[in-house]
Amino acid sequence: MKLQKKIGRSMLLMIILTLVVSYLATTIIVYRQTIDIVENELEQEADYMIAAMEMAGEDYLAQIDAVRRPTRVTLIDENGTVLYDYNEAALQENHKSRPEVISAMKTGEGRDIRRSSTLNKDMVYYAKELKDGRIFRVSKSVDTAFILSLRVLPYIGIIVLIMALIAWRLSKRQVAKIIEPINKMDVENPLHNEIYEELTPLLVNMDEQIREKELVAKMRREFTANVSHELKTPLTSISGYAEIMKDGIVRPEDMQNFSERIYKEASSLISLIDDVIKLSRLDEERVVKTEPVDLFQLSHGVITRLTPLAKKSKVRLELTGEPVEIMGDYRILDEMITNLVENGIKYNREGGSVAVWVGKTLQGVRISVSDTGIGIPKDQHERIFERFYRVDKSHSKEVPGTGLGLSIVKHGAALHKMGIFVESEEGKGTTIILGTEYFK
């Protein structure tokens, strides 16, 4: 639905509702005022008629009916018997139980408003006790108030039509004024617009989404460029060695060395592709498939699996702590701890160690992996989780790896509502802690 139609309908509905309420309120006020006027008139007429009847006798009542006054006159005795009423049906009913009659017998006068069963009209009654104990009652119809309301209704209808036309015209102009600054809004820089204060949350949200999209696009461009570079390097080496071997210009004694280099580059390439696939899968996952996972037992399996690599690098592995069970994705948690321990081995010194601790703290679950390796400069603690980032470029050439391990750890931690804390000093080793207490 267009905004103009929506505002126009809202304005028209409010006008109609206001007029209906005003009409009802006017009807009630007119009705109440009419009742007050009729009651006052009846009281005055009753006093006048009683005085005239005392002077001229009861024949005066017949004279009143002869001139067809709108006022109905009834004379009732002490027992409630109707002595006089121009309506013959009323003569056959006892009026002692009528509210105005009861009140007149007790206090000298009485009033009531009700629907007459004989006339089938809403009537205002006024009764007054005479000196001889009889009750003199006069009454009038109050249909006048409703008739007056019906007379006003056509004028209300005309006013509604006029106001509807005005509302339609005003809504067009008002919508145009409201929409104009929105149409002129700079959507590329939402916060630079001077616009309605009520739209500030929307603009802030738009700005955050734009910045997030720009960041994602930038990360994708960088990721694509890095992947292309990282893939090109081993492929170039493999292609070069293979071409030399194909041309037959490799000496027989060098054939094994060339084969080893091709195998090494192919292994590096496979490892890179595997990490890229893992990272892409983590990027796409929003909710992990959870199951009970014993982190201590999982860490024990990782250390057992990496023991041959540690022995080859002359690094000692150690696991301490206690069994801790959390709900998580076993596969992702295994990849996270494997990457941390593997990094601790790769970037360690000969004779160094990697210590893994798993347990609970007052704040939550914690896993820490500490090594005695080369360490990380403080100004690069945040950057180590960037994709393809290597702290020591020269040392990285000697150490196999893709530069994606810690990125996988970061994504996996986010999926498990875990935070990452880094303690490291260049030349003194590194401790990386995963824990629910660090998640914000």
From TrEMBL:
Principal cellular location given in the protein's record: membrane
Domain Histidine kinase residues, every copy: 226-440
PROSITE patterns xrefs: HIS_KIN
GO MF terms, alphabetically ordered: ATP binding
Any single Pfam family the record assigns to this protein: HATPase_c
InterPro entries: BphY/WalK/GraS-like (IPR050351), HATPase_C_sf (IPR036890), HATPase_dom (IPR003594), His_kinase_dom (IPR005467), HisK_dim/P_dom (IPR003661), HisK_dim/P_sf (IPR036097), PhoR_single_Cache-like_dom (IPR031967), Sig_transdc_His_kin-like_C (IPR004358)
Cellular compartments annotated: Membrane
TM helices/strands, residue ranges: 12-31, 146-168
EC number: 2.7.13.3
Catalyzed reactions: ATP + protein L-histidine = ADP + protein N-phospho-L-histidine
Keywords from the UniProt entry: ATP-binding, Kinase, Membrane, Nucleotide-binding, Phosphoprotein, Transferase, Transmembrane, Transmembrane helix, Two-component regulatory system
Stored PANTHER family: PHOSPHATE REGULON SENSOR PROTEIN PHOR
Name of the featured protein: histidine kinase
Organism: Ohessyouella blattaphilus
Organism taxonomic ancestry: Bacteria, Bacillati, Bacillota, Clostridia, Lachnospirales
